[in-house]
Each structure stands twice: as C-alpha cells, then as structure tokens.
Design a protein that fits this description.
Largest sheet: 6 strands, antiparallel
Structural class: mainly beta
Strand content: over 45%
Shape: globular
Number of helices: 1
Helix content: under 10%
Distance between the termini: 25 Å
CATH topology: Thrombin, subunit H
Strand order of the largest sheet: 4-1-2-3-6-5
CATH class: Mainly Beta
Length: 117
C-alpha cells in the first residue's frame, strides 16, 4: 500500500468523499442520503474524455482525479459511483457528479483510483 513519493507529491489537493447510505440510499423523497465520509489527497486535472457513466451512456468528462486507495489517515477506502465528492473551494462546481471510477493495481496490490467527474 504505497505510492511512489514522486506520485504522492503530485497529489496537492484535498477532497472529501461522502459515502451513500447503504441501508436506504435515499430519504423516501428520491433524495440521496450519506452516512460517512473520507478525506483523500488527490490530483485534479482538467481533461476532456469520453467515458461510460453508471447507465453505460457515453458522456464527456471534463475533470480527471487521481487518488490513492486509502484516505489521509492511511485507512483503506473506496470511491463509488453513487458517492458524493466535494472538491476544494477553488473548483467550480465543487460537487460534480462522479461519472466513472477506475481502480488501478500494481504488483503489490491496490494502487490508486482514476475518477472522472
């Protein structure tokens, strides 16, 4: 569970991922509810890329984000398509929808997430 120091040094942003409540997923009025959050180091880049969303539609992502597969406290963490991400205040919008999450692994195991917003 380690990133190369050079890669970790590029992760200059802090993001918060709120995880969707697994028991209900909503409040009964079609509004999502969240039950816990994780703070991650991240690298946020503006890149246009055609990705598949959760319904397999092709959509254009304008933001790509790299995060380790663990939070700032070094606890293993995940990012799901139904989660809510909050970017630093200088980004607009600061809570864009998560379009695609691609986990990456190396010879040692979990390495990083590539997230398209």
């Amino acid at each position: 569970m380690a990133l190369a120091p050079q890669l970790e040094a590029l992760m200059i942003h802090r993001i918060v991922v709120e995880h969707i409540a697994t028991s209900t997923g909503g409040d009964g009025y079609n509004k999502r509810t969240y039950d816990s959050s994780s703070t991650f180091r991240a690298r946020i880049e503006f890149v246009e890329k055609l990705v598949k969303d959760r319904t397999s539609r092709s959509v254009v992502s304008t933001t790509r984000m790299f995060t380790p597969m663990w939070d700032v406290n070094r606890n293993a963490a995940v990012i799901g398509l139904s989660d809510r991400v909050t970017l630093p205040v200088q980004f607009e919008p600061n809570q864009p929808p998560i379009l695609s999450v691609q986990p990456h692994y190396d010879h040692e195991g979990p390495h990083h997430f590539e997230v398209y917003l």
